[in-house]
Amino acid sequence: MTMLQTPARRRRAGTGAPPPRTRNWPGSASGVAGRVLALGLILGIAVWAAVPLVSSGAWTGVAITAVATGIALYAYLSPRRLPAKYLLPTTFLLVAFQVFPVLYTMSLALTNIGDGHLGSKQEAITAIETSSVRREAGSAEFRLTVAERDGALVFLLADPATRATYAGTPDGLRPLDGAVPGPGGRIAAADGYTVLTGAQAAARSAEITALTVPVDGGAIRSQGLTRAYQGKAVLAYDAGCDCVTGEGRIWRSDETQGRFVAADGHALPQGWQVGVGLANLTAALTNPKINAHFAGVFAWNLVYAVGVVVLTAALGVAAALVLHHRRMRGVRAYRTLIVLPYAMPAFAMLLVWRDMFNTDFGLINRLLGLHTDWLGTPLTARLSVLLVQLWLGFPYMFLVATGALQTIPDEYLEAAEVDGASPWQRFRQVTLPLLLLALAPLLVSSFAFNFNNFNGVFLVTSGGPFPSDNPTVGATDLLITYTFRLAFGQQGAEYGLAAAMSIYVYLIVAVISIIGFRRTRAFKEVT
Amino acid sequence: MRTIFRAPALGLAACLALTACGGGTPADTPAAQAPTTAPAEDAATATLTIWADQKRSETLKPFAEAFAKENGIKAEVVAVAQNQQQTFVTASQAGKGPDVLVGAHDWIGNLVQNGLIDPIQLTEDQLSGYVDVARKAVTYDGQVYGIPYAVENLALFRNTDLAPKAPQTFDELVETGKKLKEAGRVEEILGYTISQQDGQSGDTYHMYPLYTSGGGYLFGTKPNGDPDPADLGVGTPESIAAFEKVAALGEKGAGALKRSFTSDNSAALFADGKTAFLVAGPWRLADVRTAGVKYDVTPVPPFKGGDPARSFVGVQAFFVASKGQNKALAQEFVTNTLATPEVAQALFDAEPRMPALKTALAYAAGKDPDVAKFEAAAADGVPLPAIPQMVAVWGPFNTLIHAVVKGEPVAPAVKAAGKAIAEQLGQTG
Amino acid sequence: MRALAWRHAAAVLITAFAVLPIVFVVSAALNPIGTLSSTNLVPRGAGFGNLSRLVEETHFWTWYRNSIVVSGLTAALAVAVSALSAYAFSRFRFPGRRAGLVSLLVIQAFPQFLAIVPLYVIFSAISDNWPAFGLNSVWGVVLLYIGGQVGVNTWLIKGFFDSIPRELDDAMRIDGCTHTQAFLRVVLPLAAPVLAISGLLVFIATINEFLIASVFLTGDDARTLAVGLFGLLADQRNANFGMFAVGTLLTAIPTVLVFQFLQRYIVHGLTAGAVKG
């Protein structure tokens, strides 16, 4: 609650940076009502958010909620004209769903996280021991009834072969007399024991799984709720030597690899996550398989993004110009049909296009009477992904261009005509600049989108075709598809390395964005 | 869950209503507290969560519900649309995974190294109820990790109008197909899936029969029956010889194998009567029957004088998640409910895949003569390797298939793939 | 007249380019065999078998509803939130404004789906505390999508706000309006076209998104069209293109409707914008 004092104090001190134009601040009734409403909303959400956090004792979460609430109260209760009032929702969303994941990803780059190294060492040890429990060959399979005595779990066991009955506890196995046999050879009841119902057993599931009844040469464990078997954990962790022993071998903990490794180099499959420092970051730079292709991928990525923007804009504008004529008939019909690709779900149409490029059976070769291996050679595959994206993207440019064309006053063109300008000159000097003005923001956002157009490439070519000596980098790979394949692809998940890669990709994209920002500023000042 | 869903809206509505009258926060508290009570109720009755693909989830739902009712719990069958293995790994690691997973046996190696599935202890009697190849498939490192329910493998579909006689060798098959094509009765020699659905890389799964018939192998075998990553078969002279035979049928050879063939369009060709032969699995039976083509199913024939054409056998299985909340229930459900012939039969009725349980297989064979034919085709089959090292194989091998079928020089391509796999193996350790 | 003939020829060509793949999808949708028989434009027989199978065998209408809810909410909220911050960036001068604009751009450059593991960690924590916004909840995914969209849209909208003369809202304020009222009554109505464009872009991006949705929306009740339709193709060896094609065509309908609804704002707005430019 100390948070609340801050705005009051600051207001009294009269600091802060209110723009000078607030002289005409109306302390109107609606302003007050708005603030009361904001107070109610903020506190309501805060309480709603905090209750489960408090009840589960997540104090970090409570602290974050408190800080966020404090900031929100400060911003919205202040009568001043604070930009924060408009910026907070964006800020909160960005911090939670962009900034935090990015930072988290960066921290993963410093670990070996990936398949086989997902969890903690303790999790790995548990997995090793659990999966090494082997059923004693030829041993009896007991019919199990889960019961309790004085609150403690007891396994009531019936051996279907010998018809002997036992009670098993963590202390051991005792013969059980007077057990009432039930269906399936299981014990239905026994004196002094309360048989658990399904729901009761379900509630104590973890206890049941953990209960082992020691017997000679192993232990009896449950296999579900109605069967038990005698088995032995072949491998065991020894905290003394920080190693796993069993089968006459020793696997010692290797904290740099995050695995248990034997002297002969054999490692147990279950590993754990360890820090590897900058190894992933340097590997992304030094591994010849990665860095040799990086420049190529990057260059194609740029060509792709620019190409898509230019092509879609060109065809969109061309289509709009073709239909922009007073005496042109059927414009509405043309327009409706041309816009259709934009309405179709892109992810589905990308897959359809992929099949249309098939050499022998694809629609394109059939219709054109060709036998081109479209997606099989680097050049044609690149042309293909550009063509697909052109199809998906041009209708939008067409629409915007159509709208913009209608707004160009006829007087401009007539004036140019009077000046003796040829149609081409009129287009170049009057129409095009005005069109570009309307299209400019779309071109910029189209570039940003296509630079990371994962679907557009991945669903059509998966990044391929791939050279036979390096199946990790394909001819149409964008940085993003390439990184994705590294993280989740056929090599098995290597999140650590992928995180390192995505940091580099991110840096590149960020730099391009900043350059773009500068350029658009320049652009704005011209107009 | 439903009450929680409404809580924020209620809270907001309460705020809006009350602030108007100058009230405020106190009234929000009761509405805002709603979420805390609901989870407590949930905890009282355990929920058994089962993840399956779309089709399986529909079939399993009644069984899961019956099991839940019997045990006084709740059961939820969730259909996971895609990336099932990946999603399972991510979710389990975050503690949000299911109790039971339905999936392919070749996930076992990866799931075990991530410590996400538990062994299932079965007696010799129980195990002997399953067909051999299914039992082998779910056994990894000497332990059984899943209850198998369906087996699927490749076989040769033949249009009996076009080719009345089953070819004894692959060479004979190509010969027949060529004659039919020259006679203008078909458009393609055969339908043989070369490419993945994305058209960009080869399909190791479908190539394997020809590769093995030509004398190649992927990994040697360890004494315990698991594939041995230390003994890599790609890049050996045998593998080069095998791919030479494949190349002879490829785009620059006989033209029987082409990169344009995907599983989808090769089946469509067969269904349209545009080819007399199709190498595919039981999943294509429904399409072929719908099309009304007269067909027969025989094992994929070997090369003349070659080894048997071994098809990869994929086994669908039920797994118990290590990090599930209700492991005892999950084990009970998997070993006692899902392992029953009733479930296997219901799954078969939903889709004609060969059951792994012998009694259900007899049931299926009685209902559908094609089951026995696929079973015969599985005789020489080998389970898809479940070791995690297989991830090193797919990429390079798929690329290799494309290179060879395209007609690039065979020996360098095979050696490059072998090198790429070996490097990967070194990296993944 | 020759000029018009030339125009018609070009228009027909462009229209053919636009329509042909869609005809192909229609053909696959009518084809009774569940494969994308890539050889033909004319299907082998025609029927509505794929449609009835899609409706009967899957939760298609649930997916449909979810997609519309998710995309609609995301579009509306993302535009609202972006418009707020765009207003601040356009009309206020405050320390850190430039830095804020640049960092919006830079932060946004990180594709969310590469951070799927961290996002999963966030969402499992949210699920533990506020299940209404956690895994398998459309609300959670909506928030996530908004977080991924506000940066770009703030930029887009801010650009348009800059073109609205400041004198207009200054005049309002002299008349005794608060800056909130100036924003609501002057700037927002004038900015309708850019809001419509942003909304449409977000709607389309969201209805197409499947990488994130496939991880966070796995439950039958929570799945979206993109995830559900992909599920039909998930089995490499047993894809059902017929049903997929039907679903694709049906998915286009809400987009067309949204487009039709927003179109007049877009065209009208561009007129206004260009005159001012």
Protein described:
The complex is a heterotrimer of chains A (527), B (429) and C (277). Chain A has 527 residues and is an alpha+beta fold. Chain A has three domains: 29-108; 133-233, Periplasmic binding protein-like II (Beta Barrel); 286-526, Orthogonal Bundle (MetI-like fold), CATH 1.10.3720. Chain A has helices spanning 2-13, 29-55, 59-77, 84-108, 121-131, 198-203, 205-210, 279-286, 288-323, 331-343, 346-356, 363-368, 378-407, 410-418, 423-451, 454-461, 479-488, 495-526; strands at 133-135, 141-149, 152-158, 165-169, 172-175, 180-181, 187-189, 194-195, 212-215, 218-222, 227-233, 236-238, 243-246, 249-254, 259-262. In chain A, a hairpin with a 4-residue loop joins β10 and β11 (227-233). The model of chain A is unreliable at 1-26 (pLDDT under 50). Chain B has 429 residues and is of the alpha/beta class. Chain B has 18 helices and 15 strands. In chain B, α1 (2-19) packs antiparallel against α2 (28-44). In chain B, 62% of the residues are buried. With 277 residues, chain C is an all-alpha fold. Chain C has a domain at 60-224 and 253-276: MetI-like (MetI-like fold, Orthogonal Bundle), CATH 1.10.3720. In chain C, 77% of the residues lie in helices and 0% in strands. Chain C is built from twelve helices and no strands. The longest helix of chain C is centred in the C-terminal third of the chain and has 36 residues, at 241-276. The two termini of chain C are 35 Å apart. Residues 270-277 of chain C have low confidence and may be disordered. Classes of the chains: A alpha+beta (527), B alpha/beta (429), C mainly alpha (277). Chains A and C meet through α2, α4, α9, α10 and α11 of A and α1, α3, α4, α5 and α6 of C.
